[in-house]
Task: inverse folding
């Protein structure tokens, strides 16, 4: 049987291996590795022969994978690997384990047997429908992940960011650019000065790649306009203030608009504000514990889609970088 190769090992790399590794982002690779550690622990307790030494033997049996996937459809008690709850896991979690199994075989350079591949696809489709039923009958919440940020909450956070003596300009600029660009925190943090230009009265920002567009096929320019009626949420004014507070750029300085740790700083600030202003956030109509950086992207897309005088759905999807699927002419 073939053995699993240790992902992340650089010793003995051949020319081109680094390029091949790029097919999966390091963050996704880390998530798959964590899931496969869970798989290995489950195999050691349930199917001992499937692990020799510290190595998972490939290819895995179809029945083994099916039993494992069935076990991860239910959440476990925190800190208790053996304590099951009655709460179903989300489809994205279970699908992540399915992809991790495929990743395990691919990294081990072992072809996935057809019966196993068919079972993985069928399990994903079946669980997706099961989750829909759970939401329909109330077993699962209709809302998954972070909730969309309302426009009122967005304005409130912008005011709080402006009054922050510790974070100030960087946090405010990160907030309003993420909202106006409809980007994830990772994409906003990656903006460089050479990604920004002017076209008429619009600030043009280019995003090299996004989470759902790793090849940069949809990296078209995004136009951002000033908001003279509400200076507290004007992206042009906010960026201008940030540039002036940073001072003149000297040779050798980072070309990034924000600090390398801005995503973590912003997430920390957002969490603290939501906790400190929990009562105010509740009045606005959002639950502070369900707010995260991704709430911005969800919030602006929801606001635009639900506005009677808002842009067409296609425009919103293109701005967010979502796939339009089989669009009919």
Result:
């Amino acid at each position: 049987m073939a053995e699993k190769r240790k992902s992340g090992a650089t010793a003995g790399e051949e020319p081109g291996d680094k390029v091949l590794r790029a097919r999966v982002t390091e963050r996704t690779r880390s998530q798959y590795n964590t899931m496969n550690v869970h798989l290995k622990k489950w195999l050691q307790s349930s199917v001992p022969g499937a692990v020799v030494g510290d190595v998972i033997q490939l290819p895995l049996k179809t029945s083994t994978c099916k039993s494992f996937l069935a076990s991860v459809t239910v959440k476990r008690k925190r800190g208790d690997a053996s304590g099951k709850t009655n709460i179903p896991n989300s489809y994205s979690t279970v699908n992540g384990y399915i992809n991790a199994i495929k990743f395990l075989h691919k990294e081990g350079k072992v072809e996935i047997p057809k019966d196993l591949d068919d079972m993985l696809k069928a399990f994903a489709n079946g669980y997706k429908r099961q989750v829909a039923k759970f939401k329909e009958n109330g077993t699962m919440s209709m809302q998954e992940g972070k909730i969309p940020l309302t426009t009122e909450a967005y304005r409130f956070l912008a005011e709080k960011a402006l009054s922050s003596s510790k974070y100030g300009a960087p946090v405010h600029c990160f907030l309003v650019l993420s909202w106006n660009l409809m980007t994830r925190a990772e994409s906003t943090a990656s903006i460089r000065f050479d990604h920004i230009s002017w076209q008429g009265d619009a600030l043009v920002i280019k995003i090299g790649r996004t989470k759902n567009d790793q090849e940069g096929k949809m990296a078209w320019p995004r136009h951002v306009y000033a908001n003279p009626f509400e200076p507290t949420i004007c992206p042009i004014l906010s960026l201008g203030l940030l540039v002036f507070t940073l001072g003149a750029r000297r040779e050798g300085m980072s070309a990034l608009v924000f600090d390398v740790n801005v995503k973590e700083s912003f997430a920390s600030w957002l969490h603290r504000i939501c906790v400190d202003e929990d009562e105010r956030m509740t009045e606005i109509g959002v639950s502070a514990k369900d707010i995260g950086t991704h709430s911005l992207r969800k919030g602006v897309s929801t606001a635009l889609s639900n506005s009677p005088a808002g842009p067409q759905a296609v425009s919103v999807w293109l701005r967010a970088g979502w796939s339009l699927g089989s669009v009919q002419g």
In short: The chain has two domains: 2-137, 151-320.
